[in-house]
Design goal:
Blueprint (H helix, E strand, L loop, with lengths): L2 E5 L3 H13 L4 E6 L2 H8 L6 E5 L7 H11 L4 E6 L7 H7 L3 E4 L4 H12 L4 E2 L1 H7 L17 H11 L4 H8 L3 H15 L4 H10 L6
Parallel strand pairs: 1-2, 1-3, 3-4, 4-5, 5-6
Helix pairs in contact: 2-3, 7-9, 7-10, 8-9
């Protein structure tokens, strides 16, 4: 079973979430923390598979806590617990090492899927959150020293950032699976990214997608 720590400064939310995940046997909640400093102290004695990390916490926020937690335990997975209004911190959380975001008002089914996906090494971005965060590919002219992507690559990059699989992208843009796979590999080669999280970071840094 997935060993999990919940780091959130809202006691009622944290305790309710812990009971729910334990009851449904989604994960074994081995500890709770009210802020980043408490989490780091816990990590001195506990080795979880995953941390559900709130962004806004007193003493030490989720961004700093994620960085320091991964310094202590490099193999640790971090899934961000996000509230509306946290958008300004998303890039920082990804850069710190978080593997995805799930909204606090998401269903327990979505949260379970996110926990399982991130725990096994994948990433997770709430579809509802992405509809708000990732809008349209910017049509602004690019400078000569910027990486040039074709219109089709930009279209596929946007869908990758929205967490669509190659199969889903192929259906949406009316291309074969192999063609989408080729485009994806080409995008990664051009940008130097290794995975979807890296592509999202690249797209945000390059202002190819807008928040």
């Amino acid at each position: 079973m997935i060993k999990l720590i919940i780091a959130d400064d809202h006691t009622m939310f944290r305790e309710s979430l812990s009971k729910m995940l334990t009851l449904k046997k989604t994960a074994q909640v081995i500890a709770e923390a009210a802020n980043g400093a408490e989490l780091l102290a816990i990590l001195d004695n506990q080795k979880p598979d995953l941390v559900l990390m709130d962004i806004s916490m007193p003493e030490m926020d989720g961004v700093e806590a994620t960085k320091k937690a991964l310094e202590k335990q490099p193999g640790l997975k971090v899934l961000t617990l996000s509230s509306w209004g946290d958008e300004q911190y998303y890039f920082n959380m990804l850069e710190a090492g978080a593997k995805g975001f799930v909204l606090k008002n998401a269903s327990i089914i979505e949260l379970e899927k996110a926990i399982v996906e991130v725990a096994k090494g994948g990433s997770w971005f709430s579809s509802e959150l992405l509809q708000k965060v990732i809008l349209n590919i910017s049509s602004k002219p690019k400078k000569e020293n910027e990486i040039e992507l074709t219109d089709r690559e930009l279209e596929i990059l946007k869908l990758i950032c929205e967490n669509f699989t190659n199969e889903q992208i192929a259906e949406k843009v009316n291309l074969s699976y192999d063609t989408v796979k080729w485009h994806r590999a080409n995008i990664m080669s051009k940008t130097g990214c290794n995975n979807a999280v890296g592509l999202l970071l690249f797209a945000l840094k390059s202002k190819l997608i807008e928040i």
